[in-house]
Amino acid sequence: MLSVSSTKPGILRPFTTRHDLDSQNCHKVVSLAVFIVTNILWLYYFYLLYCLLTAPFYFGPSHPRSSVLLVGIICYVAYHWIKDKDTSFRGVYLNKMLRHASFWSNLFNYFPVQMILSDELIEYSQKNQEFSTSGSDDVQGHRCAFSGLPADRNYLLCYHPHGLMGQGALACFGTEAVGFSKVFPGLKPWVAIHPAFFRVPLMREIVLSLGSIAATNNEIRYQLDTEMCGEKGNLVTIVPGGGMEMLESRDDSYTLYLNRRYGIFRLALETGSALIPTISFGETKVYTVIAAKRGTFFRRIQDYFIEMLGVQTFLFYGNGLAPYRRSVNVVVGAPIPCDRVSHPTREQIAELKSNYIKSLTSLFEKYKVYFDPEAKALEII
Q1: Which range (23-32, 65-74, 181-190) has the least confidence?
Q2: pTM of the model
Q3: Which family does it belong to (predicted)?
Q4: Among the three residues 85, 112, 131, which one is the final residue of a domain in this structure?
Q5: What does the alpha-carbon distance between residue 288 and residue 161 come to, in Å, rounded to a whole number?
Q6: Sign of the C-alpha dihedral, residues 348, 354, 355, 357?
Q7: Is 227 exposed, middle or buried (0-12, 13-18, 19+ CB in 10 A)?
Q8: For residue 381, which of 280, 243, 245 has the smallest C-alpha distance?
Q9: What is the pLDDT of residues 222-242, one digit of tens each?
Q10: Mean pLDDT score of the chain, rounded to an integer?
């Protein structure tokens, strides 16, 4: 369900709740229960995975159960590595039924997660109405100026900050929890996640069904390059900060690991994809992350493990199994058009990066007064 917020001028707020969460305690109970059950199921999943892998040693190599399990494991691995090895970047498993499951709305209503369309995005939509796939500006009986984004190009949406798990990115772009298909009709969403998720049995089938792809250059390029995928209207969501940004999660600060990121801007120019800056208020508040301060010996060790091995070494906590119940507000900025350049120069990449950072900073300063007035200035490292 989509609705228009009248409390914050110029903001279109899509969400899926049927009632006001602040006045309906039942939603809090349901959302909390869903989160607890989800965590328990994850623990049980890893327990079953452990039992599956150790069963041959437990029963003995000659036991019939061991033979069946070994054959099953060999067949699954063979299918994964030989027949189905390219699905992590082609995204052929996208399942609309799983994306639209009501489970996701109940899960993310725990915070809740909300998507806010910025004034800049609405203005961009008005200028490109003739190319938009949305034929009406009437949403649930409310008149709104946003009519979608043109589907005649591909988009690279950069989500900031990473936080611990990127709940806002998953809710808004990885599922239909906030009504992505209603807000951006005609666009096909893809979310780039850590390649390790595609190496875990059964989990890879889930993330593939949600439209996830591996967060590597080749995989993202395939979805953005119209010559490679043969499609337009793809919207790929990435979290540029990655594991390094996870270590910077603090309640009162917004620190983005972006100074050393040039690949996304080169990729946008090489594929001619529009860059969409997106800032999430509250993403870093749902968990408390315990990490060493920058410049210390232990922090250098943590940085090494993340950059070289891709392993996060830090502690975190929330409300027991569940995170803190704090609102996550995802503000989507206006696309930054990029002309296709086969071999962009350093100057072109630097200019695009500078424009992107200016747009992102402006977006943060404009909307923090609504969603996090006590936030410090945006820090880019």
Answers
A1: 23-32
A2: 0.81
A3: Belongs to the diacylglycerol acyltransferase family.
A4: 85
A5: 15
A6: positive
A7: exposed
A8: 245
A9: 999 998 888 899 999 999 988
A10: 78
Going by the DSSP 8-state scheme, the letter that residue 42 receives in this structure is: H
For residues 40 and 28, is the Cβ–Cβ distance under 8 A?
no
**DSSP secondary structure, 188-228, as one string:** EEEEEE-GGGGGSTTHHHHHHHTTEEESSHHHHHHHH-HHH
**In this structure, are 93 and 80 located in the same domain?**
no
Rounded CA-CA distance 59/38 in Å is 30
Residues 46 and 180 in one domain: no
Residues in the chain: 381
DSSP 8-state code for residue 20:
-
253 and 278 co-located in one domain: yes
Rounded to 5, what percent of the chain is helix, strand, coil? Answer: 45, 20, 35
Whether 171 and 304 map to the same domain: the answer is yes
The DSSP 8-state label assigned to residue 378 in this structure reads P
Same domain, 195 and 334: yes
10 belongs to a structural domain: no
pLDDT tens digit string along 267-311?
999 999 999 999 999 999 988 887 767 778 777 777 777 776 666
- Specify whether 200 is located in the same domain as 52: no
pLDDT in tens, 113-167: 999 999 999 999 888 766 555 544 444 333 456 778 999 999 999 999 998 888 8
| Residue 2: predicted pLDDT | 40
Q: Which residue has the tokens 């940085």?
A: 303
Do 64 and 124 have their domain in common? no
Domain count, the chain: 2
Same domain, 51 and 166: no
Q: Is residue 6 part of a domain?
A: no
Specify the pLDDT at position 88: 59
Neighbour-count burial of 71, counting CB atoms closer than 10 A to its CB (0-12 exposed, 13-18 middle, 19+ buried): exposed
Question: Residue 236's pLDDT is what?
Answer: 96
